[in-house]
Amino acid sequence: MKLTPYSQNAFTPIPSKFTLFRRTCVIWQVIKFIMINIRMTILIIKSHH
User: Fold this and answer.
1) Which residue of 2, 14, 20, 34 is 20 to 30 Å from 49, comparing CA positions?
2) Separation of first and last alpha carbons in the chain
3) Is 45 exposed, middle or buried (0-12, 13-18, 19+ CB in 10 A)?
4) Tens of pLDDT along 26-47?
5) How do the domains of the chain map onto residue ranges?
């Protein structure tokens, strides 16, 4: 595929409304933070046994 400079395909895609919501919603970020911490804790617990 040939890419022409300054065409629509040359730029990054515009995020959807749902993607923007996930990036800016504090509640969603807290939930993701807790999930990541749980995953890391499980990984550390498994590695010590």
Assistant:
1) 34
2) 51
3) exposed
4) 999 999 999 999 999 999 999 9
5) 16-47
